[in-house]
Amino acid sequence: MRIVVAFVFITIATINISFCRRSSSVGCLQSERLALLRFKQDLIDPANRLVSWTSGVEDCCIWSGIVCDNLTGHVLELNLRTAPLNEYATPAEDEAYERIPRFLGSMQNLRYLNLSLNSFQGVIPPQLGNLSNLQVLCMGDYWRSMLPVENFWWLSRLSFLKHLDLDGVDLSNSSDWLQVIHTLPSLVVIKLSYCKLHHFPPKPIANFSSLASLDLSGNHFEGPIPDGLQNLTSCRHLDLSYNLFNSSMPSWLYRLRNLEELFLWGNFLQGSMDGLGNLSSIKALDLSQNNFEGGMPVSFGRLCNLRSIFLVGDRLNEEISQALNIFSKCVAKVVESLDFTDAHLFGPLTYQLGRFKNLKSLSLVNNSISGPIPRSLGELSSLEILYLSYNQFNGTLSEIHFNNLTRLIGLGASGNSLTFKFPPQWVPPFKLLFTGTLSPSIGSLTSLQSLNLRKNNFVGEVPLSLQNCTKLVKLDLGENEFVGSVSAWIGERFSRIKILILRSNKFQGLLPRELCHLTSLQILDLAYNNLFGNIPRCISNFSTMMRKSEMDDDIEYLSNDYFNLSFIEDALLVNKGEMAKYSTILKFVRKIDLSKNNFSGGIPMGVTDLSTLQSLNLSHNSLTGKILENIGAMSSLESIDFSGNQLSGEIPQSISNLTFLSVLNLSNNKLSGRIPSSTQLRTFSASSFTGNELCGPPLSNNCTVSVPNRGEKERNEDGVDWFYVSMALGFVVGFWSFIGPLFFNRRWRCMYFQFLNRLQDKLGSVKDVISGYDICTNFHLSLALK
Questions:
Q1: Are the C-beta atoms of 499 and 476 separated by less than 8 Å?
Q2: Does domain 1-197 have CATH number 3.80.10.10?
């Protein structure tokens, strides 16, 4: 069984507080040392992180992850935290998990226990109720709900508990959960999200009066918001999201004047939101995905501490200007995030937008807002996220709208009728991280020469309008979520392109032959996609990869003088297995990377014409056939990776001619035979050749030639192998038995060649072979042997 310990952090109470250093003669307590060794026995440590935990080392205070008190030697902390798990990952069907060790309940001085984000299974052991000094208990992991609780009363013995996090723990069979929590007077934080809770008693819970934070989101509560919560007079954080509440807002909710964060999204609440305007301390308000009526309440204008408000999917049915006008006084000065996505807003966006000086995020996606975008947008100097997609905006966006948006990292404006118009010399004052689909308006930038959209969250297909950007020299769409096929128009329209990077997307289908028209291409990176079929033979058309470039032959990436003077083009490339940034030497790089696709067929012969290619990666495809015999002609190659294919045959001897080769990986194919015996190839490790049927250095298995048993029997004491001697003599006797009569007997010669003449009528080839010689009188042995 296996345990992945993601986070364990234990603090044990100390007896004295001292600033003195621990004496070297003081080690950890023997009882705690034995407890730690027992704890290790219950774990499987695949990363070998507990290698220092051994009985041979007496002082456990020097063990990995252990922190002791400097004076007493008591263990204070046990920190085995590793990298966080993928929150969306689910356990494999055959994956086994360990139960929470029961002996943890013997650590009665424990104050802090965090077992969240682990892979424990089984019932939570009631022995944890012995941790009478515990103040913090965290066992939450709502992505891996594996910890059911059948009897919850052990928790009532933790009278000092202040922080309880059981997110994702299955409490569906614990009908007494609320009564137990009621017995814990010191609780300040309760997190019970996604616990499959479904019942909440109607009577008020008195001990909730000291609670500062309550999270009951993601459960199965339904009906009205329970009145049992009305004593949350000290509560600052209340999350009831993603339940089945379907009533109007209870009046007692408006009296929670200390409330700073209220999350009610994903319910079926109805009626007016007006009373929420009395929550004068509120900073974050999420009312999304409900059935509220009456539009934006005017009372919201009194929420002078409001930092963020989310009304996603609520049917406001009012003009955007009216909604913004409600916030135009004190709220506009402090609010940082407004999300009105799909909120049924309409009308023009007016100058009021410029009042929100501290706004960092604005989303108006999927409404019916119309007209031009006001120039006052440019006054929002704190803006980081701006999403305006799928409205009815029109007009032009220019540098006036963006010159002051120095912090902008996200911009979405697709699904409108906007035109982007910027002077050629304009340099954006921000660097975007783009999400959503790439706007069709990108095609209006007809003078665009370099487009770098790498590592964003773009989805969908590459817009057809991009083919209007015929002056592109560099196109980098790598590390996004683009789908569809690699368009043929890339090869037809981008005749100047030198760098084409579509790496790490979801492109699929055949690779179009039109790409072979890109004769200026020097970097082609299509790795990590779903492309299939044969690699086009016309790959040899990449003429820039065929000729040597002199150092003084400065390849102009951008023809505009301003750009040439202002910056040097750069690109992120994977070379020799590592990602690196290339800038000043980029113009000298020649690289093809088609790895991690589904290409089949053989390696195209034309690739060996690319004599200046420096890196060729075709790994992890389904390529068959042999490694090209004349691969040694690619004299500039520094890196070859053909691993993870189905290549067969021998490694060609010519590969020894690649004197610049520093990376070679031919592993996991069907190659056979002897590895060429050159000094160059012997510098590579055995891992470059494993997973084949190869032999010879650097592999440990030597190549051996088996000698026939018959020859062994006929070998005499002097070491003469009479098998081979007799075979040679037999050939000589047989040869002259046939040739001798022809050579010395004129009659036999004539009869033999007359026979060949008769065959001539049937085969039509003998006359050409003898080339007009007189076969009876002018016969030459040399001719006959031909």
A1: yes
A2: yes
